[in-house]
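Exercise: predict the fold of this chain.
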Amino acid sequence: MFWSKPCSLALASDSPLRVDEPKYEGIKHTIFKLLLFYSKQSQSIRGANVVYKRIISQVEKPLIYEVFNLEKTFKTTFSLLVLHMWLCLRRLKQEGKEGVELGQYLYEIYNHDVEMRVSKAGVNLLLHRWMKDLEKIFYGNIVAYDSAILPVAKQDELSNVIWRNIFSDDGSSPPNDAASQTVQAMARYARREVSCLSLTDKEAMFSGNFMFTSLETEKNSKGR
């Protein structure tokens, strides 16, 4: 799986999945302008919300757990969430200051969502401590992923990082042969998404008008 040539993930201009900016005219346009609806900050926040919805859409798909043989738990969902956040933040950073600023809005949306997920899991009394621990995990994972795709990184470094961050309970024992194949497939998926996002234009990234690689397509190719 995930051997196909990378391509842009941008949605076509006529795609029904696009989320375009509303176009108001006349008095409505004037009122929304006065309310700073068209300000750069407001547009960035709306874009970041759409980007996060794309991430959630991929992470919440039952198929992603099926394709990678994962049990859906808070830990696996959180780990996949961090992986896809890294993919997007890394791409946004390539756009310089504007991308970094949008990435910050994206992180704030992510952080709020994670807090809601922790509360939903029944953690309330130690919520602040949990959030601090998850924040450390987030940044630790981001650094590890960045290092794993450097040109000087070992060939299996990304697979090792993914095994520790997503698949392993404690990170100490190595994967068996079956698990190793699945981990390597996810490493190929991550590398391919890095390449695909690099080919995705700025407008698509800033507006959130892109979709991650179809897991259904990859599942079907696996069966052939």
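Check your answer against the key: Residues 97-120 form the longest helix (24 residues).
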